[in-house]
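Researcher: Let's walk through a ligand-bound prediction step by step. First, I give you the protein sequence. Second, the SMILES string for nicotinamide-adenine-dinucleotide. Third, you return the three-dimensional complex as structure tokens. Ready?
Model: Ready.
Researcher: Here are steps one and two:
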Amino acid sequence: MTRCIVTGGAGFIGSNFVRLIVKKQVFDKVVVIDKLGFGGFLENLSDVLGKITFIKEDLCNFSSVLRIFEEFKPTHVFHFAAETHVDRSIIDPSSFIKSNILGTYSILEGAKKNSAERLIHVSTDEVYGSADSGEIFTEQSSLNPSSPYSASKASSDLLCLSYYKTFNLPVIITRSSNNFGPYQLPEKFIPVVITNLLEDKEIPIYGTGKNIRNWIYVDDNCEAILQCGLFGKIGQVYNISADNSNEIENVNLAKKICKILKKPESLIKFVQDRPGHDFCYRIDNSKIKNELNWRPKVDLDTGLQMTINWYLENENWWRKRKKELEEYYQQNYGGR
Ligand SMILES: NC(=O)c1ccc[n+]([C@@H]2O[C@H](COP(=O)([O-])OP(=O)(O)OC[C@H]3O[C@@H](n4cnc5c(N)ncnc54)[C@H](O)[C@@H]3O)[C@@H](O)[C@H]2O)c1
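Model: Step three, the predicted complex:
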């Protein structure tokens, strides 16, 4: 009998992943742990709630997390939960240190004490820092994070690898490029562009807009994470990114979305750059392709159209989220 714990399963990538494993009936039992903090909404799982066990818990509550692991004795753990918004990590790094490092420590101990067969730690290409012209990061590249967010993720990667080396805990790490798709909070770049354009509002773009990202459609990443979880080699790191054609400058991506939505490019407004803003993320995905025969399926244009369609069909969802975000920033920082 396979039992799977998914942390952060009410967030953007986590909820898409839970939908995938429920649809494919990969595991006999699926338990989602999420504190329903920033980015986490039970609504994101409404179509699968009858098929999973949902537990609202903060991973920083060490003894509660251990009790959950003790009760369910997972064979597989997929660890998505993290504080993820780089801008917020600059305003206040403390919750990033707690959730991303201490939260990871809780699940490592839970997995160790209950002999989990596989623990998949979901990380990011941001741990490598910015790529220079022509540079491309492999899994062997050194870690050089720039923001408190990416530094906390790099810390959790190292903690996971130490549990593999010291305790033989069967850990696998995935590092993916920027994701996009349904259920992404409208404080991340693509949903901000789409929803602002739908409201005929300006689109803020940092600096010159020339920063380069490789965009992977969320379903492709979820499929890759699942492949790593089922067939990846223990103790290994796997980079996950789309093909080179999904690499684009931020300003050109915004222009593409303007074109699809038939909105004027004059709505693009350049704003003061984020401190420590990485110029380019570029990772080599040949390891996962060669070892696990995984391939990204969704090109940028197709993925953008699917994502825009989702936001058009789910206006209530993103309007609620935008209102909550405005209120949060107003209450805590007097606005954005
Ligand atoms: N979004 C991307 O482009 C991207 C790219 C590469 C890697 N990642 C990684 O993928 C994972 C998921 O990212 P996402 O974009 O879905 O983020 P998200 O912010 O949408 O979701 C994160 C989820 O984790 C939960 N969470 C946070 N802290 C928690 C805690 N202490 N206890 C319990 N639950 C907690 C939140 O409530 C939320 O549901 C993260 O680990 C992130 O670093 C994201």
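Researcher: And what stands out?
Model: The mean pLDDT is 96. DSSP finds eleven helices and twelve strands in the chain.
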